[in-house]
Amino acid sequence: MIKVKDLHKKFGDNEVLKGIDCEIQSSEVVCVIGPSGSGKSTFLRCLNMLESITSGDVEVDGQNLKDPKTNINMVRTEVGMVFQQFNLFPHKTVIENIMLAPEKVRKISSSEARERGLKLLEKVGLSEKADQYPSSLSGGQQQRVAIARALAMEPKLMLFDEPTSALDPELVGEVLEVMKQLALEGMTMVVVTHEMGFAREVADRVLFMDEGIIMEEGKPEQIFSNPKSERTKEFLNKVL
Amino acid sequence: MEGRFNWAGVIEFIPELGTGLYYTLLISIVGLLIGFILGAIFGLGRISKNKLFYGISAVYVEVIRGTPVLVQAIWIFFALPLITGYNMDSVMAGIVVIAINSGAYIAEIVRGSVQSIEKGQVEAGRSLGLSQNQTMRYIVWPQAFKRMIPPLGNQFIISIKDTSLLSVILVPELMFQGRLIASNYFNAVEIYTTVAVFYLFITLTLSYVLRIVERRLDVQ
Ligand SMILES: Nc1ncnc2c1ncn2[C@@H]1O[C@H](COP(=O)(O)OP(=O)(O)OP(=O)(O)O)[C@@H](O)[C@H]1O
Ligand SMILES: [Mg+2]
What we know:
Shape of chain A: globular
CATH topology of chain A: Rossmann fold
Number of domains of chain B: 1
Strand content of chain A: 25-35%
Number of helices of chain A: 9
Structural class of chain B: mainly alpha
Order of helices and strands of chain B: HHHHHHHH
CATH architecture of chain B: Orthogonal Bundle
CATH topology of chain B: MetI-like fold
Largest sheet of chain A: 6 strands, mixed
Radius of gyration of chain B: 21 Å
Largest interface: A-B, 26 and 19 residues
Bound molecules: adenosine-5'-triphosphate, magnesium ion
Oligomer: heterodimer
Number of domains of chain A: 1
Distance between the termini of chain B: 56 Å
CATH superfamily of chain B: MetI-like
């Protein structure tokens, strides 16, 4: 589903990604962990071209993102993204947030988009909030709406950038629960997270990033109980 | 003091002042409508990545903001015809002045409001597969427009008051009529007070309408 080859990313002179190689299979759940500033978000954002690629290759669903013939808007319809700050559209109701892209990009009818949206809201447990504005929802509810909004495009792949970091601790569980459900249904997921419990329980594979490279990767049991690299050990000692 | 000012006599001049009011409103409304269109275009120019579009917009805004309206009015009415060989009538020139002048300030309002929309909004739109234009149209612009309303209202009021300067290019607006009457009938106190009250009436009505619009748009 994703093939990344020798990916480099610079902001000006600051090289943030220093050669990332990685492959992610369909239905795989990969958690990305690592210290702040190590380039986790940048890596994720390169996967849907929210950041341009300085050098190297990124292939998503068979399409090379650097190829000028690739229609990046089409690729993005297959790649859902969930942000730390939710980024719901404040001027639209919950259901309108969800309906917008299916209507304008997929060109499906408004009634079909609505029906699909209501089903997704039911799935994330927020049916009764359809006609409210995001500002009247709790952080956890907003993030669940954001997940539903991304799912409305029926993506093949979902990217999550610290989806629970902006939430009060008591609201984290409800969002992780939705994500876990999604993983069980076979969604391909790349999740940047500080929730080590979630990574250990749900991930098929964990990537530890440090200073712009993937320092270590492996099954969660191995990474958490028997890390090979000193840096991984240090990091886990700090966060666990 | 009693009897020194003939307030009741003002009634006699209502037709002339009415004509003035008509031109003041005409120039304000048409001028600001065009100004809004100019502002939207050049405001987007100032956030455009296209260097030429950006450059033209920047020069326009800086030149207009950096020169007095009075100079702009006189230049357009007296100087421009000498260059183009085409004489504009004064009302037309007045509309052009208000449009071009308000357009520059409105461009800044548009730019500021669009730039005040969080980057995450655009990223959310683009990550869903919306194009740049669709993201502007459905996500950024509606939110930016709401933020524009208070400063736009402010600019409308400033431009309405600026129309009084057009008396120097012989536009028969409120101030021009007032001066004409006062110099013929020596009733400066009564007439200029009445003229001031007319302006106040227009601007207060506009403030009131704007407050209602703001409240309406804030329902969510
Ligand atoms: N748009 C940008 N312009 C310039 N520098 C940037 C930009 N985005 C990120 N950086 C820099 O890139 C580095 C990596 O940032 P990134 O956000 O990818 O880290 P992260 O691993 O996600 O950290 P965190 O856990 O704090 O979210 C940081 O040093 C940051 O300052
Ligand atoms: Mg980050």
